[in-house]
Amino acid sequence: MNAVLGITGLLIAGKAATELLLGRLNRKEALANSGRIPDAFAGSIDPASYQQSIQYTLAKNNLGRFETIFDALVLAALLMSASLPWFYGHWTLAAGHSVWTSAAFLFCVGFLLSLPGLPVSWYAQFRLEARFGFNTTTQKLWWMDRLKGLILAAVLGYPLLVLVLKLVQWSGPNWWIYAWLAVMSFQLLMLVLAPSVIMPLFNKFTALPPGTLRERLLALGQRTGFHAKNIQVMDGSKRSRHSNAFFTGFGRWRKIVLFDTLVQQLSEPELEAVLAHEIGHYKKRHIPKMILFSAVSLLAAFYIISWLARQDWFLNAFGFETSQGIVPVLLLFALLSGLVTFWFSPLLHFWSRRYEYQADRYAALVMGESASLSGALRKLNEKNLGNLTPHRSYSGFYYSHPTLTERERALQLIAPVKSAAALAT
């Protein structure tokens, strides 16, 4: 085995071992706290719901352990067996080396790699989620979602792959800059089109009917200077009893979306507080900052790909010939990059949790009190069977949001002041 494959094997094993260790720590923490509701929540969650949340955490932990081992074995077999060079060699012999057939190869491999995970996803939806009363989707709908996703990938993703490969041909050594511009432009276009074109393919959106809730939320938008095109309710309940709220789109395409399950679960002040939190992300410019970070990361990724394409040792280590060009490099980078970016997860999630604290603070200041947001968070945690006692290492590594305990502790420190100066901080 050459050195590159050896390092790759260590990265696969190290990632899997870390995931298993963190999962074990979280499991032990859940079991250690299973006999007693944390003092801070003793009066707001009943023992039966708490025990069910423990069982849900343990069930997801068991499935996660299987997924970790399964994914590691699949990736190791794929990279160590020389099956990729064999497949690409036979593909080019049969179809040639044009950008169209090369893009088709990448698309085909991506599709084939998604197949091993289908049984796990099916089990998670129709066994694990159903066991705890969350699943509301049907077999037909579940499979239709995947078919629609495949068609969208073919209609949108395949032409983008062709364009990137064309740019490699046309642009010379600096192709990676033009490819980055093309992909970023595509992503920004999708942010505009998704609310009106793509999302309605999967869910039904209806205008929030006239009434006190609509008036309250529109008044919140006026008060905060957040002017959305409309407020819509999404039929999330046709797939799951989990709930959420978000805003999407830019400019005149921007809209506020509430899951129908969320509207059913929360009171009007709590819904207003949840929306104020989402507006906080907008007012604090979190979305543009995340887009900027994504753009810089994508630029770095394309540069690394262009550098690896010039290194004979990289392609040769995995059984490809140097003459086979950029296509194997793109494929190998897609497979290997997660082994490196995984170790940056704690930093990225720390950044995300910081944004959540800022949005919580904004919501509390807009509302003039923190009780409504705190009540909403408690209800959502209970309805979604959230883990009240995750291990600190686990939540620090994986959680994009602070734990309920951390969020409530931060909310308690916010003075109930309503002022433009306070909202600007």
Structure, described:
Helix 6 runs antiparallel to helix 7. Strand 3 and strand 4 form a beta hairpin. Helices cover 71% and strands 4% of the residues. The mean pLDDT is 92. The protein has 425 residues and is mainly α. Strands 1-2-4-3 form a 4-stranded mixed β-sheet. It is globular. The protein has helices spanning 3-32, 47-80, 83-95, 99-114, 118-131, 139-171, 175-198, 212-224, 260-265, 268-283, 286-308, 312-317, 326-341, 345-367, 371-383, 392-398, 404-412, 420-424; strands spanning 205-207, 231-234, 245-248, 255-259.
Q: Beta-strand percentage?
A: under 5%
Biggest beta-sheet profile: 4 strands, mixed
Q: Find the count of extended strands (DSSP E, 2+ residues).
A: 4
SSE topology string:
HHHHHHHEHEEEHHHHHHHHHH
Radius of gyration (CA) equals: 24 Å
Number of helices: 18
As residue ranges, the low-confidence spans are: none
| Structural class label | mainly alpha
Helix fraction, binned, reads: over 70%
Averaging pLDDT over every residue, what do you get?
92
Strand numbers in spatial order across the main sheet: 1-2-4-3
Termini separation: 56 Å
Subunit organisation of the chains? single chain
Overall 3D form: globular
